[in-house]
């Protein structure tokens, strides 16, 4: 992790945990540092919310399981009224669990399993591990989040556009207006057959894709982006997450449950469909095999000798196949994977943007390309959502269905 120096202006830390033992361990672990200052402690959420306005912490360590007011409820109150970078702690849940993703969805920037970071570590390692997490959080900008409003405007199409559909029976071409109402259909003016316009009942060819790449910290970004998009924007989303396979697979299932997009794990031989969101684990080398207007994934283990990372590979491969019908987006990550891929997309006249590094837990992945390619780097997650909608909707007239 990136090392930060806060000796001149230490990070103000609030510890919220009902276990006095854990608070004592954290206090002793961090007390020797001059770059972190513990400005308060609380045993439950109600105490914490009362203290926050008094001490204005830069970062909060917040336990999930507490009496009186638990961590998730506290987090939601916090993000509505006083958004503060928050790292969730849990002894019952681990990274990659549904509880972890819930916390990130509601505004936490990181999640630590107590069992994982204390078990088997000496005091020095504990201190550095926690300090690195705190420093990264302190450098992250968080916005106010109202859980009652999350997703309320997700994927709303506000502009009427023309869209081309084809009759499955005779192949006749029809032009319709969007947005499409639920359950809508039209009569084929050639053979009279009903053409279903409901996304779940029709196969949509793909000729435009957005490739999104992220690493550490990217889950939180994705949870603020994918659920806000609607499959009717057209095209497909291809998401590379550089993390352990089991965590990525767990996230895929969680994201599918809260999104309008059909979210699935990318697999060798899978045919891409418009309106789909495909998750890649970062361990694959991917090529696209075009056949009869469709595109099938050809995947194999990513060769160790490759000169590109998994995000670069997918972006370069997509750009080679789709040319200027590709958009590239980078989110939080601790390395520069994706930089070459964005360059290739731009070379082929595609569209690219990066999330504002201030909204990334780890900034390396976005900071380099932002400067190198003079990209839009002032976008928060909502801005990235708007940009993806804009790009996809501008290509809707080219998205055909069969």
List the helices and strands and how they pair.
Elements: E1 11-16, H1 20-30, E2 36-42, H2 45-55, E3 59-63, H3 71-81, E4 86-90, H4 98-105, E5 110-113, H5 114-118, H6 123-138, E6 161-166, E7 173-178, E8 185-187, E9 194-196, E10 209-214, H7 218-223, E11 236-241, H8 245-258, E12 262-265, E13 276-280, E14 284-291, E15 294-301, H9 310-322, E16 326-330, H10 339-347, E17 351-354, H11 364-373, H12 381-394
Parallel strand pairs: 1-2, 1-3, 3-4, 4-5, 10-11, 10-16, 11-13, 12-13, 16-17
Antiparallel strand pairs: 6-7, 8-9, 14-15
Helix pairs in contact: 2-3, 9-10
Structure in words:
The chain is of the alpha/beta class. The chain has three domains: 11-138, 3-Layer(aba) Sandwich (Rossmann fold); 161-201; 209-398, Rossmann fold. Helices cover 32% and strands 23% of the residues. The protein contains twelve helices and 17 strands. The protein has helices spanning 20-30, 45-55, 71-81, 98-105, 114-118, 123-138, 218-223, 245-258, 310-322, 339-347, 364-373, 381-394, and strands at residues 11-16, 36-42, 59-63, 86-90, 110-113, 161-166, 173-178, 185-187, 194-196, 209-214, 236-241, 262-265, 276-280, 284-291, 294-301, 326-330, 351-354. The strands form five sheets. A six-stranded parallel beta sheet has the order 12-13-11-10-16-17, sandwiched between helices. Strands 2-1-3-4-5 form a five-stranded parallel beta sheet, with helices on both faces. Strands 6-7 form a two-stranded antiparallel sheet. α4 (98-105) links the parallel β4 (86-90) and β5. The longest helix has 16 residues, at 123-138. It is elongated, with a radius of gyration of 23 Å. The termini are far apart. Mean pLDDT is 85; it is low at 151-162.
């Amino acid at each position: 992790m990136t090392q930060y120096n806060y000796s001149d202006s230490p990070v103000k830390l609030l510890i919220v945990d009902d276990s006095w033992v854990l608070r004592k361990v954290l206090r002793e672990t961090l007390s020797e540092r001059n770059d972190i200052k513990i400005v308060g402690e609380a045993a439950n959420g109600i105490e914490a919310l009362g203290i926050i306005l008094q001490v204005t912490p830069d970062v909060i360590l917040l336990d999930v399981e507490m009496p009186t007011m638990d961590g998730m409820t506290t987090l939601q109150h916090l993000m509505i009224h006083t958004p503060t970078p928050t790292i969730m702690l849990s002894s019952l849940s681990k990274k990659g669990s549904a509880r972890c993703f819930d916390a990130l969805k509601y505004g936490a920037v990181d999640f630590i399993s107590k069992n994982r970071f204390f078990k088997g570590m000496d005091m020095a390692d504990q201190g550095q591990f926690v300090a690195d997490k705190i420093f990264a959080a302190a450098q992250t900008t968080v916005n106010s989040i109202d859980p009652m409003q999350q997703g309320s405007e997700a994927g709303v199409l506000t502009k009427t556009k023309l869209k081309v559909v084809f009759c499955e029976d005779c192949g006749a071409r029809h032009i319709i207006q969007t947005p499409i109402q639920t359950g809508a259909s039209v009569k084929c003016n050639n053979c009279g057959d009903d053409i279903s316009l409901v996304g779940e009942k029709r196969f949509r060819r793909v000729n435009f894709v957005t490739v999104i790449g992220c690493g550490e910290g990217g889950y939180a970004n994705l949870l603020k982006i994918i659920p806000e998009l609607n499959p009717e924007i057209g095209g497909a989303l291809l998401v590379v997450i550089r993390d352990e396979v089991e965590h990525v697979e767990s996230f895929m299932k969680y994201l599918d449950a809260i999104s309008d997009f059909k979210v699935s794990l990318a697999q060798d031989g899978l045919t891409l469909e418009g309106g789909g969101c495909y998750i890649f684990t970062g361990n694959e080398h991917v090529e696209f095999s075009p056949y009869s207007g469709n595109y099938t994934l050809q995947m194999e283990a990513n060769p160790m000798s490759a000169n590109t990372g998994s995000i670069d590979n997918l972006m370069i491969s997509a750009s080679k196949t789709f040319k200027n019908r590709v958009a590239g987006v980078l989110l939080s990550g601790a390395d520069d994977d994706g930089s070459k891929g964005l360059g290739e997309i731009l070379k082929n006249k595609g569209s690219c943007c990066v999330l504002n590094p201030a909204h990334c837990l780890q900034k390396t992945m976005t900071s380099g390309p932002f400067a190198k390619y003079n990209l839009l780097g002032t976008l928060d997650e909502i801005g990235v959502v708007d940009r993806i909608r804009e790009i996809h909707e501008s290509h809707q007239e080219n998205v055909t269905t069969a």
